[in-house]
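hey so i finally got around to running the thing on that chain from the lab meeting. sorry it took forever, my laptop kept dying and i had to restart like 3 times. anyway pasting the input first so we r on the same page abt which one it is
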Amino acid sequence: MDLKQDPRCYTDVCINGKWYHYDHCGTTVYQLKGGASPYYELNKEPKTEAELIAMLESFSH
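ok and heres what got predicted. didnt touch it at all, straight out
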């Protein structure tokens, strides 16, 4: 599925039991775990949900 190119949109995905929050039109992803959530910087802006998931899988190990 293509990600909407709208900064008001976001996608939350669960990978290996960890939830991640991605605000569209950016490269920052936050892990949802309460309190001060760790964030990760993506190499580029993902265009599809599959591309986002593939990028996040490297952080979920």
